[in-house]
Amino acid sequence: MQVYSSYVKDLVDQNEVLVQTVEQLESEANERVGKLEEKLNKAVVTAKVNVLLLKLTEHLYADTLLCCMIYRTVIRKLRTMNLSSRAQFLLKRSTKKL
Fold first, then answer.
1. Which of 12, 18, 28, 42 has its CA 20 to 30 A from that of 58?
2. CA–CA separation, 4 vs 15, rounded Å?
């Protein structure tokens, strides 16, 4: 009977060690998952910022192209005008801005 009692006590001790090991592994796994979630959240924020920067860059590029087209049109128009007409055209444009 004493052999069985000793055997059961050994099993209980082993079980306690096993439970502690599993709890420790679970704690470490939760910590790793938390760190991975944090990295993932940072990556998501970075991706969103990059998408917004890309959209802003696209808008700025489109605005720049539009300005270039307007300036080219104005330059072409000025080249076809005589000196007096150019002065009047530029004077009208500058007073509109004020």
1. 42
2. 16
